[in-house]
Amino acid sequence: MYIVIIGAGRIGRGLARSQLATGQEIFLIDNDPARVQMLRTTFGSIARLGDGTNVTNLREAGVARAGLFIAATGDDAVNLAACQLARQVFNVPKTVAVALDPENATLFEALGVDDVVSLTDLAMTRLASVVPSHPVVRLMPLAGRNREMVALKIPAGANVVNRMLSEVVLPYGSSVILVIGPTGQTEEPRPDTVLGAEDELIVVTPVEGTQSLWETLTEMP
Amino acid sequence: MKVVIMGSGRIGARVASSLSTDGHDVSVIEPSPTQVMNLPRSLVDGGAIKLVAGDGSSSSVMLEAGIEDADVFLALSGNDALNGLAAQKAKTVFRTRRVVCRVKDEGLRELYTSLGITVTSPTALVADVILQTVPEIP
Question: Can you give the pLDDT at residue B30?
Fold first, then answer.
């Protein structure tokens, strides 16, 4: 398939490299002479200098026979305009735009772009899976004693779920002062209190014990 | 009438001060402090023109400029694609009644016109005027 790509930045170049390797026919347009030169040196004449929102440039790049048009510049407005031209003027069957601003993702689809890749949403989704979903919330430092009061939620499936409080080895000097159930009911902790998923514990702990307290309460099998 | 203008280059600034002097409620969106200098200081300092610094194609900036109850949105920056995006946002997201988009590139002019946006091209207008001033040329 003939694929035309606007924007020869990291995304455009990476895409070109991977698609050329699978035997696709690729052409890129970029307004930066250095980028175009770099592509030509590496791959031959698969790139031209120009503005991807200019009809003449698009025509000369053969957009009319493209099966896929990808706008991957760092400028959302340019990506939209290029895709709209590809569709309206050259009847390209499928257009794809990269969007940096998440609000543009839904808008671009409403404006006729077939597929929008929202970079910010992708990064956020990935980051959300890296950041712990059950963090330690530091409620307050306890002055002069090098201790703090923290809140931790026990995730479903953690090792401590269904264990009695007396069976759980907490860091030296830590004590649970309140257990808050998933529906908000509070319970004064006793040695035979059974811990459940999504229970929140309010704990007074030495500051240096906070990390291992979190590990103990969130550790998975 | 309430008018939101994106871009305070020479064209945007002139349109803004003219509308403001005529008594209209004018907001101008402009990210560049240098371009803001094109607006008459008296109108900005006196509060006749509301100035919003920022990217004119971002919804939050458009909202700050009062797009929600604007009668007219004029995309008059020097950037065709940005004007096109902001104009389409005003039309489809904020349902602004009258949207005008300034465009230099002829191909984009046709595109935006086909999308139902009123497009004005200073380049074409100036060319027409020049030709009219030289009637000797048939």
Answer: 95
